[in-house]
Each structure stands twice: as C-alpha cells, then as structure tokens.
Automatic annotation (TrEMBL):
Keywords noted in UniProt: Heme, Iron, Metal-binding
Gene3D superfamilies in the cross-refs: C-terminal (heme d1) domain of cytochrome cd1-nitrite reductase, Cytochrome c-like domain
The protein, known as: Cytochrome C oxidase, cbb3-type, subunit III
Superkingdom field: Bacteria
One Pfam family of this chain: Cytochrom_D1
UniProt domain Cytochrome c: residue ranges: 12-92
The keyword Repeat is annotated on this UniProt entry: no
Taxonomic lineage from the root: Bacteria, Pseudomonadati, Pseudomonadota, Gammaproteobacteria, Pseudomonadales
Keyword Heme: yes
Single GO term (MF): heme binding
Length: 484
C-alpha cells in the first residue's frame, strides 16, 4: 500500500471526534506525530505493553500528578476517552520508523569531554558510588556508598529500562529509556555528556569489557544499535529480524550475547579485534531463549525454555544443549544469582508464578533444593562477604516481605518486613558487602540501608519508587551475587 498517497485522503476522512482526530487535536503536541513521543512519552502498543487499559483510561481522564500530563475529563466524555484507549492499543496506520538518519539527528553532545578533568571532582570513593533509578518521577541519584549522601540528582528520559552499565574504569554510566534514549553520564564530573535516541522501544544496553562500545537492543524497530562509547555516536545498525529481548556483555569471551524474542537463536558479537566487524555468530536453539543467565565463566547459558519445561543449559562454544532442568512454574533465570557453597558454585533462581526459589548445582546442573517462599519473587542478590542471599517477594499479598536465605543451609533465616503493606524489592550491596540497600517501591517510598551482618537499619532516604540501584565497583568487577 502506498501510505504517502493515502495521507490526504485520511485527513479528509477523519471526522471530528474520531479517536484519530482527538489524538491530533489534544495529544499530538506532546506525544508526537505517529505517537512516537516528543516532550511526552511514546504511545505505541509496544510502549504501553506493561500498562493495563484501565490505567491508560485513568491517565487520560485524570492525568498524572506532578507532570505535564493533565487530565482530559473536562474536554472528552467517557466514550471518546474509551475510543482513545482502543486507538492507542492499535499500531499507527503507517508503521513508525527509526533509521540511521533519525538516530544521527537525535544525537546530542552536552559537554566537551576534552575540557573536563579526568579525575573525580568529588570526595567519594568512585568505585563505591551507587546509581539509583527513581522511576516514580524519572530521576536518577548518584549516591556516595560510604556516607549514603546524594551527590547529584537529575531528571532522566521517561522510564529508564534495564540496568545502567559501566565501562571498566567506572568513570561513566550509560542507561537506556523505554523510548530508546541512551544517555552517557560522567561520574567524575557529575555531568551528562551525550544522548542518542536509538529506537522507539528499547529493552536495555550493554557496554563492552574494553569500554569502547555500547550496544542497545530494541523491540521497535527489531534491531541492535551499536554506539561509540566515547560520545554515543552511531557506529552500526544490525537488523535482527526479531525483537531483541536483551543484550549482555560476556567479559571472558570478549563478546556481546543477544537474546531474541522471535527467533530460535542466540547471537554473539565478538569485539576482541582492534576494528571488530560485528558480524553476528548465530547460535541455533530449539526454542525461543529470551530470558537467561550465564555460568560464572560464561561458557554456558542457562535459559528459561518452555519446551524444556523449565530451564535449558546451552554450551556457548558448540551451541549444543548440555541438559534440561525441569522446573515448575515460570522460573526467571535472568534475575537469578550464584555463589559458592562447600566449594561448589550454586545458582538460584526466583519464580514469577510460584512462591519458590530453585537452587541448582552449577557443575552437575542437578536441582539441589526448592525453597518455598511467601510468594513469587523477582530479584535476588548477594555478595561474597554476605552470609545471606536476599530475595524479594514481589507478587501477591506478602510483597512487603524480604527473605534472607542462608547460603550454606539453604534455609530462610530471616524474613524482614521493612514497611508493612509496601512493596520491598531489589537489594544491592556496597562494594565491601558491609551494607545492603533496599527499595520501598512506592511514590512515598524510600531507600533503606541495612548493616548486612546485624540487619539493623542504618539510614533511610525518602525516594519516589526507587526501582533499582547499582554499585559501580560490584558492576565493573562482575562481582559474584550481583546482576550482570
Ligand atoms: C502537555 C503535554 C501533554 C499532552 C497535551 C498530553 N500528554 Fe499524555 N503525557 C504527557 C507526559 C509528560 C506524560 C508522562 C507523565 C509521567 O511522568 O508519568 C504523559 C503520559 C501519558 C500516558 C501514560 C504513558 C505511560 O507509559 O505511562 C498516557 C496514556 C497519555 N499520556 C495519554 C495522553 C493522551 C491520550 C492525550 C490526549 C488526550 C495526552 N496524553 C495529552 C504529556 C502530555
């Protein structure tokens, strides 16, 4: 179909009060032509995937407090609001695109790196800083991990998505937003350096072990976008023919590993060469493997697989299936963690449909134990100096609880309820493992700092839905117990 020719006709056909006309009149100035976003976020089916239609309806009717999004109850009756809710769930009449030209045009350099000092311009330990994402009002905090004072707080693009990532020296932090904005922030100078919009709907990013490349994975368009880590300028676009679920860096392999949503393949992009070609090595799989974790040496991949009825272990060099691990419910292997127990590596994974944690031996891949919990969980974290693995109960009536599992006995030793009735989730340790930072996921939420030995509260910082927190040292060392 020749869409361009249709445009004048479409304009003629939109009668006053149709959802398309209401969008143009009331929404487009902020949400953009073709709904790809402008000052307001993108409103495409992919963007709204995690939001229930009832919430979309309520936002249009009542707006969002403390934001540019005002309610439209006075202008639009409920039938017209319902019309808009349906309209936003459908793809736009002409499919939105985002090509190399659009990426280059979006690229903004905000500070000249050559003019900035190359040493920390603050007194905190640069390897014990925390980057904290406040998802309630789309801000980021840079926290001193020794004093727990906030060194900087700045606005981000709408909905930071996936974990922020660091180069090996920890100077910068790179992060992605739901609508495809990649940002580079200088942790020495506490300044934003550059931004590029790489897509319309982005999952996450990874930084190469040598700190030279930033790779972003997109749902829309389904591709990978490679940027130069010095200033986020575009290097290459790789079409995947599939939505990209996630990208990872595999330090011992000098490569990126890519999880795909619509193909029975896992991709590897090597970057060891001085001028890497970034030609994908396509590892064939028997199933869609879009949620996975790695063995500590990155030789093997542990993926959630429906066909395997749980998990499947794949050898990354040969591509062969090592074994299936039957696990009931919906294990979320991507947010599992590993540690040493009696000299063996073990791996534990939460389950997003069942209140249980599965512990697996990383040598034999045998299931060692199923630990019953108060409900399905999402995040698990530990530290080499911690006796416990901290695991949240993310779903269900006990989502205010946190289990502390003894790493040796595999029993729940403590269950904390930091703020009864409010979701407690996502912990991260200081670099030395002495303190644990935990989030209360509420608009009037908080970051709570615990002594990891005595379990006493040390400090509480009020925050607006502090969804994730990331310790620079633990991340750049790919420390045991943290997320990768
Ligand atoms: C003045 C600018 C502006 C106008 C006009 C506007 N919006 Fe928004 N809208 C925003 C901003 C900014 C946000 C993000 C609010 C936040 O921080 O949560 C938003 C958020 C939303 C969201 C929630 C998106 C999400 O992913 O959480 C929906 C849905 C929405 N707007 C729909 C509409 C519709 C439909 C219209 C027209 C009837 C409209 N908006 C008009 C600025 C605007």
């Amino acid at each position: 179909m020749k869409r361009l020719l249709l445009v004048p006709l479409l304009w003629a056909n939109v009668a006053h009060g149709t959802p398309a006309e209401d969008y143009r009149q009331y929404c487009e100035q902020c949400h953009g032509l073709n709904r790809i976003g402008a000052t307001g976020p993108a409103l495409l089916p992919e963007s709204l995937g995690r939001i229930k239609p009832d919430e979309v309806r309520q936002v249009i009717r009542d707006g969002r407090p403390a934001s540019q999004m005002a309610g439209f109850a006075a202008q639009l009756d409920s039938a017209r609001i319902d019309g808009l809710v349906d309209f936003l769930q459908q793809p736009p009449a002409s499919p939105p695109t985002w090509d190399a030209q659009a990426i280059r045009a979006s690229h903004t350099v905000l500070a000249d790196l050559s003019q900035l000092p190359t040493t920390p311009q603050h007194h905190a330990d640069p390897l014990n800083l925390f980057v904290v994402v406040e998802s309630g009002d789309h801000h980021m905090d840079i926290l001193d991990g020794d004093t727990f004072n906030v060194l900087d707080r700045f606005p981000t693009h709408f909905a930071v998505h996936g974990g922020p990532k660091f180069p090996p020296d920890g100077r910068f932090v790179y992060f992605a937003s739901r609508d495809g904005w990649i940002s580079q922030y200088d942790l020495h100078n506490l300044k934003l350096i550059a931004e590029t919009r790489v897509g319309l709907n982005t999952r996450n990013l990874a930084v190469s072990k040598d700190g030279r490349w930033v790779l972003a994975g997109n749902y829309l368009p389904g591709n990978l976008v490679l940027l130069d880590a010095r200033d986020l300028s575009l290097v290459k676009i790789l079409d995947t023919g599939s939505r990209v679920s996630a990208v990872y860096t595999a330090p011992p392999r000098d490569s990126f590993i890519v999880a795909l949503k619509d193909l029975n393949e896992v991709w590897e992009l090597a970057y060891a060469d001085a001028q890497p070609r970034f030609e994908p090595r396509r590892i064939q799989a028997q199933d869609v493997l879009d949620d996975f974790s790695f063995s500590p040496d990155y030789r093997q991949l542990v993926a959630t697989s429906r066909k395997a009825g749980g998990g499947q272990v794949i050898d990354l060099d040969s591509g062969a299936v090592v074994t299936d691990i039957p696990l009931a419910g919906m294990p979320h292997l991507g947010s599992g963690t590993y540690w040493r127990r009696d000299g063996h590596w073990v791996f534990a994974t939460p389950n997003i449909s069942k209140g249980q944690i599965s512990v697996i031996d990383l040598n034999t891949w045998a299931l060692i134990k199923q630990i019953p919990t108060l409900g399905p969980g999402f995040f698990m974290r530990s530290h080499v100096n911690s006796r416990y693995v901290w695991s949240d109960v993310f779903f269900g009536p006990d989502n205010d609880a946190i289990h502390l599992i003894d790493k040796q006995t595999l029993e729940i030793s403590h269950t904390l309820r930091p703020v009864p009735g409010k979701t407690a989730a996502h912990v991260e340790f200081t670099r030395d493992g002495r303190y644990v930072l935990l989030s209360i996921w509420a608009t009037d939420g908080a970051l709570i700092v615990y002594d990891s030995q005595t379990l006493k509260e040390v400090k509480r910082l009020p925050m607006n839905k502090p969804s994730g927190k990331y310790n620079v040292g633990n991340k750049i060392e790919f420390a045991e117990g943290t997320s990768h």
